Amino acid sequence: MSEVSGAIRTADEFEPNKATAMENTKISADKVQVYYGDTHAIKDVSINIRAQTVTAFIGPSGCGKSTFLRCLNRMNDTIDICRVEGRIAIDDEDIYDPKVDPVQLRAKVGMVFQKPNPFPKSIYDNVSYGPRIHGLVRRKSELDDIVASSLQKAGLWEEVKDRLDSPGTGLSGGQQQRLCIARAIAVSPEVILMDEPCSALDPIATAKVEELIDELRENYTIVIVTHSMQQAARVSQRTAFFHLGNLVEVGDTQDIFTNPRDKRTQDYITGRFG
Amino acid sequence: MSEHTVSAYDQELTEIAGKIAEMGGLAESIVSNAVSALITQDLVLAQSTIDRDQRLDDLLHEIEMRNVQVIARRQPMGQDLREIMAATRIANDLERVGDMAKNVAKRVIAIDSDLKSKKLAIGVEHMTELALNQLKAVLDAFTRKDAEAAVRIRGQDAEIDAIYTSLFRELLTYMMEDPRNITQCAHLLFCAKNIERIGDHATNIAENVFYMVKGDHLLDDRPRMDETGVEDKESV
Ligand SMILES: Nc1ncnc2c1ncn2[C@@H]1O[C@H](COP(=O)(O)OP(=O)(O)O)[C@@H](O)[C@H]1O
Ligand SMILES: [Mg+2]
C-alpha cells in the first residue's frame, strides 16, 4: 500500500495554504447552528467563502442549503421560530452584531430567489426601487444611470431598453430572473446569494443566467444553491456539499466532481442516494 | 460501491466493463496466436490472426459509442466519470495491442522460413508469456477495481524490457556473424519490439486503473531504458 501514497496530489494542494485562503475570504462562518424550534437544521457548519468566486451549495433537498444561505444575509431573522448560533462575518465584521442594521446588510448582501419575483411595477421601478429606498441617489438622472447600468450588467438592457415603462411581470421567466438580478445589483451589493435561480427556467434562459453569473464573478462574491450538479459544475469554482444539516465537504469544484473525498459526496454526485 | 438510483445506469456501466473484458480476452488470444504462428511458422494461423484483429477495432468503436451515449444521457460524475474515461483509454490500448500482434503475424508471412535459432524462439516466447501475464493481471485489476494490483503490475514491466534488451543484443550478434541472417533477424527484432510494446500498453492500462480507482495519477518515477541504453525521463 505504501507505493499508492506516491500519488501526485498531496493534502496541502487540496487545501491551499491558510494565508492565501484568509486573504481571499469574503464571508467566514464559524460553528454555525440553526434551529427551527426543536429541529436542528444546520449543525456546526464552518466555511470560508472566497471573494470574487462563485461558490455552489449542493446536497439532497432538505439538507439545509437554503437555510444556511439565508443566514448569510440574516433572512432567517424574519422566521420567528428560527434561531441562529455561531459567528458569521463578512470582511471580518460579525453580521449578527446588534449594531448591524439587517436592512443595510441585505443591500450589501443581495438575494435572488428560485421563482422570479419582480414587483408588479414597471421594469424601471423594479430596478430603481432599491437605490431609492436606500437613498443612494439624489437626482433622477443618477437613477436613470443606475437603472441602465444594472440592466446592462444583468444582460437585459438590449432586450428592454425600449420598454422600461412596461410591467416587469410581462417579461419571460428568464428575463424576469435577470430583472431580479438587475434589481439586486442596483444597490451595489458585494455579495449576491442565489437560491436555485434557474429551477423555473428553460435551458436557454438558464444558459443566459449562467453566463451572467460568470460575468458577475469579476465584481461580486456569489453563492448559489442549486439542485443541478451540472449547473454547479458549470458555474462555480468552489463547491460545498451539505447532507442532513452537516457541511460534508468543500473544495475546488473540479475536485468535488471528479474525485470527492467523502463517501457521501461520492454517492450523491454519482446518483447513488436512495 | 452501492447502486445508482437509476438502475439502467448501472446496467450501462456494467455492459461497458463487459465489452472491455471481451476486448481483453480477444487481445490476449490474438497475441498468443500471432506468436505461436511465428514460432511454428504457421502461415494459416498468421493470416487468421490478422483477420481477427478487425473485431478489436469494431469493439473499440462500440465502446466509444456507448461511452459517448452514457456521457450524453447520464452526465457521469466522480468515480463513474473516471470509469468511463478509463474504459475509453483502456479500449484504445487494447486495440493497439491487437495492432502489435497483427504486426507480428504479418512478419510471419514475410519471413516465411524456419527460425535459425531455437534460443531466439524461446526468448520471444518467454517475453510473450510475461506480456500476456501482465495483460491478464491488469484486466483483472480493472474488473476488481484494484489500485494496489495496478501499482504492482506497472512495476513488473521492467522485466519485459530487460528480456527485450537481451534479445536485441543477441540478434545483433547473429547479424554480425553472418549477413545472411540479417533479413530474418531484422524481422524478429521488430516482432520483439512489438511484444515489448504490448507490455507498455499493459502499463498504460495499469495507470488508468489506478486513476479510475483513486482519482490521482501515479507518479512517473519509473526509469525508462530501451535498447539504446539511453534513459528517457520524458516519454509517456
Ligand atoms: N421555515 C421553516 N420552518 C421550519 N422548518 C424549516 C423551515 N425552513 C426549512 N425548514 C427545515 O429545515 C431543514 C432544511 O431545509 P432547507 O434549508 O430548505 O433545505 P434545502 O434548501 O437544502 O432543501 C428541513 O428539514 C426543513 O424542513
Ligand atoms: Mg432550498
Give a topology summary:
The complex is a heterodimer of chains A (274) and B (236).
Chain A: H1 11-14, H2 18-24, E1 25-36, E2 39-50, E3 54-58, H3 65-71, E4 82-90, E5 93-94, H4 102-108, E6 109-112, H5 123-133, H6 140-153, H7 157-160, H8 173-185, E7 191-195, H9 203-216, E8 221-225, H10 229-235, E9 238-243, E10 246-252, H11 253-258, H12 263-269
Chain B: H1 7-40, H2 43-74, H3 78-111, H4 118-144, H5 147-177, H6 182-214
Helix pairs in contact in B: 1-2, 1-3, 1-4, 2-3, 3-6, 4-5, 4-6, 5-6
Bound molecules: adenosine-5'-diphosphate and magnesium ion.
Adenosine-5'-diphosphate is lined by residues 36, 39, 41, 59, 61-67, 79 of chain A.
Quick description:
With 274 residues, chain A is an alpha/beta fold. Chain A has 12 helices and 10 strands. In chain A, the strands form 2 sheets. Chain A has a 6-stranded mixed beta sheet, sandwiched between helices.
What does this structure look like?
Chain B: It comes from Roseibium limicola. Chain B: One of its GO terms (cellular component) is cytoplasm. The complex is a heterodimer of chains A (274) and B (236). With 274 residues, chain A is an alpha/beta fold. Chain A is 37% helix and 24% strand. Chain A contains twelve helices and ten strands. In chain A, strands 6-7-8-3-9-10 form a six-stranded mixed β-sheet, with helices on both faces. In chain A, strands 2-1-4-5 form a four-stranded antiparallel β-sheet. Chain A is globular, with a radius of gyration of 20 Å. In chain A, 42% of the residues are buried. Chain B has one domain (3-214): Phosphate transport system protein phou homolog 2, domain 2 (Methane Monooxygenase Hydroxylase, Chain G, domain 1), CATH 1.20.58. Helices cover 81% and strands 0% of the residues of chain B. Chain B has helices spanning 7-40, 43-74, 78-111, 118-144, 147-177, 182-214. The two termini of chain B are 31 Å apart. In chain B, 43% of the residues are buried. Chain A binds chain B through residues 1, 3-4, 6-9, 229-230, 233, 257-260, 265-267, 269-274, and chain B through 1-6, 9, 74-82, 147-148, 151-152, 155, 210, 214-219, 221.
